[in-house]
Each structure stands twice: as C-alpha cells, then as structure tokens.
Amino acid sequence: MTTSTTFLGLGAMGSALAAAALAAGRHTVVWNRSTAPAQALGARGAVVADTATQAVSGDGVIVVCLLDYRSVHEVLDPLAAGLAGRTVINLTTTTPEESRELARWAAEHGVTYLGGAIMAVPEMIGTPGAEILYSGAGVAFEAHRPLLDLWGASGYFGPDPGMASLYDMAMLAGMYTLFAGFLHGAAMVGAAGVSATDFAERQVPFLAAMTGQLAGYAATVDAKDYTGGGQQSLRFTETALAALLRAGTEHGVDLEVLRPVHAIVRRQIAAGFGEHGTARMFESMRSTR
Ligand code: NDP
Fold this sequence. Notes:
Blueprint: E1 5-8, H1 12-23, E2 28-31, H2 36-42, E3 47-48, H3 52-55, E4 61-64, H4 69-76, E5 87-90, H5 96-108, E6 112-119, E7 131-136, H6 138-143, H7 145-151, E8 153-156, H8 163-190, H9 196-210, H10 214-223, H11 234-250, H12 259-273, H13 282-285
Parallel strand pairs: 1-2, 1-4, 2-3, 4-5, 5-6, 7-8
Antiparallel strand pairs: 6-7
Helix pairs in contact: 8-9, 11-12
NADPH dihydro-nicotinamide-adenine-dinucleotide phosphate binds at residues 9-14, 32-34, 37, 65-68, 71, 74-75, 92-93, 118, 121-122.
C-alpha cells in the first residue's frame, strides 16, 4: 500500500488533518479551491496540486474534507471517471442519507467509500481527546488505520455508510440542546445581573453530575418499562417545568427552549402516563417508521 495521501479541502479541519499526516512523515498531496491554505501546507512539505484532477493523479487514498455534501459532489463529480479502484475517505459533515447517496455514487464509479464524522474541533486533531466515527467499507477502515489513528481515536460503526453520520447527528442533537439549555439558564440569572461566567461556574459541575442519570434513562428506554421504582414521574417533572416557565416569565426571558420540553411531558400525561417515569418522553420522540 502506498503511503501517499491526497487531501481535497483545506479549510480549518482539512488543514488540521493534512498537517497531522505531514507531521507523521507521510507523503502528502494537498488541493484547495482557494490557494492560500495549500501554500501554507506546501511550506511544511506537502506537494501542492494546482487542480483537483492533479491532486488525485497518484494512487493513494483520497481524504475529502469540504464544506458540505453539495461541495463534495462539486469537487468529486468531474473527477469520477478517473477514480475507479481508489479509496475515498469523506470527512465532510453530511446527513446519513447524504452519506448513503455518496457511497452509492462511489460504488457506481468503482470507488471504495468510507464515511467519517469528526467529533472534535481542528485544534484537537492528533490529540487524545479527538474521536472520528467511521462507517462504510470496513476494508478501507482496516487498511488505512495507521492514517486514521493519526487524527484521534477511530471507531467503526459497520458497513452502512450512514451510521457514522447518524451517530454524529444524534450526539450533536444532545450537544446543541445542552448548549441552548445553558444559555437559557444564563439568561434567567442574567435578568438579575449575574454574569454568564459566574453562572457557568455553578452550571458546569451540576450538568456533569446530572449526566450520571443518562445510563439509567437509557436502561429504562431499552427495557421499555417506565413503571419501575425510583423513576422521577412525568407528573413531578411537569410541575418542575411549569415552575421554570413561570420563573422565566417573571424575569422576562424568552421561553422558546423550555416550552417544547414541557409540551412533550404534557402530551405523555394527557395520554394517561402521568405516573410513569420521565424517560417516557422518548416515546414522543422515537421514529414510528
Ligand atoms: P471551512 O469553512 O474552514 O472550510 C470549508 C472548505 O470547503 C474550504 O476548503 C473551502 O474552500 C471548501 N469549499 C466550500 N465549498 C466548496 C466548493 N463548492 N468547491 C470546492 N471547495 C469548497 O470548514 P472546516 O474545514 O471547519 O470544515 C470542513 C468539514 O469538516 C465540514 O463539513 C465540517 O462540518 C466538518 N467538521 C468541522 C469541524 C470544525 O470544528 N471545524 C468539526 C467537525 C466536523 P475555500 O477555502 O476555497 O473556501
């Protein structure tokens, strides 16, 4: 196997991935739509290609890290005829269905496709905290493990090319709603003149402790038994959320983050499950397909 690696897309993330390959002494070919990021890597020893076609003219693995699904097609479509037999590792954020479509496109052109989802910011690439999730061609995951492991911990989620992206999106759903919840709380105490910084000092350890509840919620959801002892009932949670909403109103903050949570709880209670555990909210959210 050749150790040459081609990088298409050198934004903040693509540059970090390419820099890690360079630092490991790999022969690295780089291309970017605008030239400045490629020149910066060229100064560190990368071979700078003038065009994407030139960048993929060798026989090594091709790492794609562009803005979005659309830009991946814009860059790869014109190259398709010459890519048969090659491996593409796409680290561009895409939805699961977009990943599956890209894998189908790759198969039609004789390309081995491994999709990846990066659970890190560029500064973390190459550090122990970085994790990248992969799915699609297992053979590519195994063959390129030395490269993948340069960037962080590498996890493989099976042959469905959409799985890495699905995990990514599910994890980000948790992250963004957590961020929004924190900002809502900051707005509440901010109404009384407390800085967000002071609030974060209290909120961070509290939230960290509360994540200890998640494994219990997960076990309840998996067992589909919302009646077991020790669960906080939906009725109790509704009372708490109603108080949070009243407190928000008292202090003039927007309630848009909290209202849907309250609405889900109320829907479950209206369906007759007030004494069931709060994890039952999952039943309002899960796919019915
Ligand atoms: P940037 O905005 O820094 O870079 C975007 C890259 O895409 C640039 O190289 C840009 O080229 C290129 N590009 C955009 N549109 C086109 C197009 N139509 N044709 C050719 N090239 C195009 O983004 P990042 O590097 O930060 O992110 C890249 C991917 O990595 C994204 O999918 C992102 O979601 C994902 N990711 C990023 C994380 C982060 O923290 N940054 C974290 C996890 C995932 P040009 O320089 O010419 O504009």
